[in-house]
Each structure stands twice: as C-alpha cells, then as structure tokens.
Design goal:
Pfam families: adh_short_C2. Helices cover 44% and strands 17% of the residues. The chain is of the alpha/beta class and 261 residues long. The protein has a single domain, classed as NAD(P)-binding Rossmann-like Domain (Rossmann fold). Strand 1, helix 1 and strand 2 form a beta-alpha-beta unit. Helix 3 packs parallel to helix 4.
Length: 261
C-alpha cells in the first residue's frame, strides 16, 4: 500500500534547522517533495543539499515571511518545481529577547510580531485560495507551550505571539472547514533545538534546568514534534482541525480545542 504522503508537495518555512528540518526529513523519507524556505541562504541551501544527498527530493527557496510578495513567490515557485502544493508547515519563528519587558526595544517587538504573527497570517492568506481551488489542503502552524498552559514571565512577547498563532489556527480551521482544509497548531514544550541553545546560552546545565519545566522533565526532541506534525499531515483521526497540541519528550501531551468543538 502506498504511503498517503508519497508524492505530496510540502512547503516548510523555517525548515533548515531544528523542528523544521526534522519535519522536512520525515516528509521526504516518506516520499513527499519538500521545499524548505527561510531567510538564511547558506543554512537553508546546506540543509537541502544534505537531504538531497540522502536521495530525498528537497529544494531550498530563500524567503522572508515578513513580506507578502515573497510568500506569493515562494508558493508559485514551489508549484513550478513540483506541479502543486498540498501541505504547509508554518514553522518560521523567532524568540526575540527573553527577560523583563524593558529588555525588548521597539525594533525587537516589531520583528517578533512580523515573523511570528504577520508571517503566519500572510502564509495562510496566500495559500488558502490555492487550497480552495484544488479542493483541500493541510496547514500546521508552530506555536509553543508559552502561548497555552504555562505563563512564562520572561517571554511575554513570545507568549503573546504564540497565543496569537493558536487563535489564528482555530479561526481559520472553523472558517474553511467546508473547503476540506484542515488547520492545526503544534505547541512544543521546551525542545532541544538551536533556539533552546540560545535560551540556555549554550550551557548544558542550563538546558537541563530549563527542561525541568516540561511535564516529562526532559527536553523534547525535534523528532517528537515531527511525529505529531506527520500524523496531522497523514490525517490521523486522533487530531481534529483546529486542535492545538502540546508536545513533550515522547509525543503529544494534551490538546486545546476550540470552544465550538
């Protein structure tokens, strides 16, 4: 029996490292055609080349999700490359500066909002007409535990944007249910990625201390998050469109569903 993901075309923003790269790898290994999108040309090209050397069909397209024309071009080029687009993983995100609110100047605030909120909004805005025309599609947006169940006083701005991603996810899921479009949010607990390295100032002892916030007491792995994202893309009946799913070491921990569910 053919894999349900075989031949599907996926775009992954922020796909060069961490969770994005883990999802790109898993999708490609199951026969999907993958476009990695990001601002860092060297990092993105290196990741795509590494995966291509493993025999996977992966390309990199330099994209700034803060710019609507760049997103429109990304989807057009992905379709030109592979003949269609079925899956979107909105994974691009930045943490800004963690600490008291006074540590974030206006430029930092603008940049975090532009990537984490505007970028997700614009990617969905641009892809939804395409999905409507073709009769369906699946979107997974990356949020975070800090936007859900555990307030993080040193991450007010990050938490606000991640809560916004969940709100957008649930609203779009409800608004486009009749178009056979499914929209989910994946909300990792602290995960062993380059972002966590930055939060811990690249100190293992600090990483271990931060990981104690997780229910498991351990840092989640990018592969743990990728497993949940792949299940969503595969149509796993355990997930409903509009779900925001927290993920820890080992997999999903709980779901936050819209009140209408």
């Amino acid at each position: 029996m053919a894999d349900i993901l075989e031949g599907k075309v996926a775009v992954i923003t922020g796909g060069a490292t961490g969770i994005g790269k883990a999802v790109a790898t898993r999708l490609a290994a199951r026969g999907a055609k993958v476009v990695i999108a990001g601002r860092d040309h060297i990092r993105g090209k290196t990741s795509a080349t590494d995966l291509a050397k493993q025999g996977y069909d992966v390309k990199f397209l330099r994209t700034d999700v803060r710019i609507e024309n760049a997103i429109a071009t990304l989807f057009e080029e992905a379709i030109d490359l592979y003949g269609g687009l079925d899956l979107l993983f909105n994974n691009a995100g930045i943490e800004g500066v963690l600490g008291p609110m006074s540590a974030s100047d206006e430029e930092i605030v603008d940049d975090v909002l532009a990537v984490n909120i505007k970028g997700v909004f614009l990617c969905m805005k641009e892809v939804l007409p395409l999905f409507c025309r073709q009769g369906g599609g699946i979107i997974v947006n990356t949020s975070s535990f800090v936007g859900t169940v555990l307030p993080f006083p040193n991450a007010v701005l990050l938490g606000a944007t991640q809560a916004g991603v969940i709100s957008m996810t649930q609203s779009v899921a409800a608004g486009y249910a009749g178009e056979n479009i499914k929209v989910y949010a994946v909300c990792p607990w602290l995960t062993d990625t380059p972002m966590m390295d930055r939060l811990a100032h690249h100190k293992d002892a600090v990483k271990d201390e931060l990981a104690m916030m997780n229910p498991s007491g351990r840092a989640a792995r990018p592969e743990d998050v990728a497993n949940v994202v792949l299940a969503m893309f595969s149509g796993d009946p355990g997930f409903q469109s509009g779900d925001a799913v927290l993920v820890d070491h080992g997999g999903a921990t709980q779901k936050i569903r819209p009140m209408s569910a």
